[in-house]
Structures are given as C-alpha cells and as structure tokens.
C-alpha cells in the first residue's frame, strides 16, 4: 500500500489542556487521566510512496532531549520512528521528503538527532518541507508557544541546507493537496491524499483525536480557538459529504475514521485502522 501509518510511541499531556473548556467528567470518558491529570496520546506519522519518492509526514518527539524534559511527558510504548520505518521495509536513507505539519516538539523532534556535540537531520537525503509563514512564526515565537518551539529541533534543518519552504508549485507530490489552517498555530499544513479512489486527510492538531470531532472540543494549546472551530466545521462537513478518511495523529486507540452528519452534528461513522478503511 502506498500510504501507511507509523507509530512512534506514546506520551502524556494534561487532559484539561487537551480538551479546553470541556468539563473533565465528559473528556474523562474519552481518554482517562492518571493521578497527575495526564492522558495518554499517540504520535502517529504517515509514510507515502509515489514512484521513487518516499514522503514522511511528521516525525514524533525524537529521543535527543534530556531526562528532565521527557519526564514531563512520560514517554512509553515500544514503538519508535526508525523502528516503524524499518518495520515498513525502509531505512532512513530511503526517505526523500519530510513534510512537517508544524514545528511543535512532538511533531518535529524526530527530524533531528544528536551526534556527539552536533545536531543533524535524521534523514540525510531528504528535503524537509515547512510553510514559510509557520517557519517565521516558530523562529520568532510568541510567549504562549515558546516552550513548544525548540531551537534544537528547528535550526539544524535550516543549517543543513535541507529545508525548503512549501509552495503548491514546488511540492513534488501530484496526489496530495495541502490545506493550511491557523487556529492551532500559524499555517499548520494538513496533507490530503487521493489514493484508491478515496480521500485521506491527516488531521495533525486540528482534530488530534477522534474525541475532538465535536466542535467545542478544542485544545487549550490553540492560539485561535474560535478559528479552530470554524476550520473544523468546514473540513468536517466536507469530509462527511465526500466520505473522507480522517487520520488522527494523537488518538491512542482510533487510528482513522469516516464521519457523517447527525442531529448532534458531525460524528464518527466508521473507525479502525487506515488499511481497513481504504
């Protein structure tokens, strides 16, 4: 199959931050919290093959931060990015392109490795793609997001010469449409694939899990939460009308789903692994 998911491990984030204004008795049913109010989340990436090109979408959190940093997020599970790439039958040298939906540490951390005192891109032959406005947003961070944009995850990509800014004309994948949304962070990129006669949309942090499909379920991390709701409305209506498959980057259980319009709004129709829904 030309499109597949890659598991890169699990981590924990505060449940209240992940569900915003939604009361805990409601979100606790979707993703139970531990004694520190943290829920378990996936870091699910995509791998797409088109001819001789092999595209990786997002890279998980990586392993180069110190124990104090990782202690906040309780990384667990056996899966790793490189292990999942190997399980899929590829090596890091096979990756020709890396599309970064945005540059928060749990999406870009695995793009850079520590070699002694040096920081280098993990995928040495790949072009790293990011929206130029988001890059500027990340390298000049606002106080709200500053802790999520780590220079050691970002600057080595530029210093290596492997960073390229996205434009529709330059991106070399003919079966992928790029959607840009601004609610979670400036110009987050959502790739939408055409494969096997189906439309598959990678939701990144616009709809991080199946539990975030109802409109009020918006993360406190979002810089423009009302805009997130508008963006969700537009995409979910289109997804329901055209029977899109939505892939959830952070859902620890549900990998992908289709949706339908109900009396309560857009809700899940079918769910399962991406390979089962395609």
Give a quick summary of the entry.
The protein is an alpha/beta fold and 278 residues long. It contains 9 helices and 14 strands.
Specify the biggest β-sheet. Answer: 6 strands, mixed
Q: Count of DSSP helices?
A: 9
Helix content: 10-25%
Low-confidence stretches: none
How many domains would you count in the coordinates? 1
Strand order of the largest sheet: 1-2-3-4-7-8
What share of the residues does DSSP label as strand, in percent? 25-35%
Structural class: alpha/beta
Could you say which overall geometry the principal axes of the C-alpha atoms support?
A: globular
H/E series, N to C?
A: EHHEEHHEHEEEHHEEEEHEEEH
CATH topology: Metallo-beta-lactamase, Chain A
Provide the CATH top-level class: Alpha Beta
Radius of gyration: 18 Å
Number of strands: 14
Task: Characterize the structure shown.
The model has no long low-confidence stretch (mean pLDDT 96). A 6-stranded mixed sheet has the order 1-2-3-4-7-8. Strands 9-10-11-12-13-14 form a 6-stranded mixed sheet. The protein starts with a strand and ends with a helix. It contains 9 helices and 14 strands. It has helices at residues 15-19, 24-30, 67-71, 81-87, 105-108, 132-139, 151-159, 225-242, 274-277; strands at 3-14, 38-50, 53-57, 97-99, 112-115, 118-121, 127-130, 163-165, 176-181, 188-195, 198-202, 245-247, 256-262, 265-272. With 278 residues, it is α/β, with parallel strands linked by helices.
């Amino acid at each position: 199959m030309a499109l597949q998911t890659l598991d890169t491990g699990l981590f924990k984030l505060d449940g209240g931050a992940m569900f915003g204004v939604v009361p805990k008795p409601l979100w606790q049913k979707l993703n139970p919290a531990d004694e520190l109010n943290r829920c378990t989340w996936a870091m699910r990436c995509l791998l797409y093959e088109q001819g001789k090109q092999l595209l990786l979408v997002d890279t998980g959190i990586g392993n180069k931060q110190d124990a104090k940093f990782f202690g906040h997020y309780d990384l667990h599970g056996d899966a790793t990015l490189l292990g999942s790439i190997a399980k899929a039958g590829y090596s890091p040298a096979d990756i020709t392109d890396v599309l970064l939906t945005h540059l928060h540490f749990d999406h870009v951390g695995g793009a850079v490795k520590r070699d002694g005192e040096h920081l280098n891109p993990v995928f040495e032959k790949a072009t790293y793609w990011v929206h130029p406005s988001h890059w500027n947003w990340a390298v000049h961070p606002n106080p709200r997001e500053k802790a999520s944009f780590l220079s050691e995850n970002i600057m080595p990509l530029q210093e290596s010469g492997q960073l390229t800014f996205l434009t529709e004309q330059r991106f070399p994948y003919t079966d992928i449409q790029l959607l840009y949304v601004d609610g979670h962070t400036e110009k987050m990129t959502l790739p939408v694939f055409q494969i096997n006669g189906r439309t598959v949309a990678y939701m990144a942090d616009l709809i991080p899990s199946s539990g975030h499909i109802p409109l009020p379920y918006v993360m406190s991390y979002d810089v423009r939460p009302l805009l997130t709701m508008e963006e969700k409305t537009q995409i979910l209506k289109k997804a329901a009308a055209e029977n899109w498959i939505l892939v959830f980057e952070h859902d620890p259980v549900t990998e992908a789903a289709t949706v339908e319009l109900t009396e309560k709004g857009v809700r899940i129709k079918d769910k399962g692994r991406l390979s089962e829904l395609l």
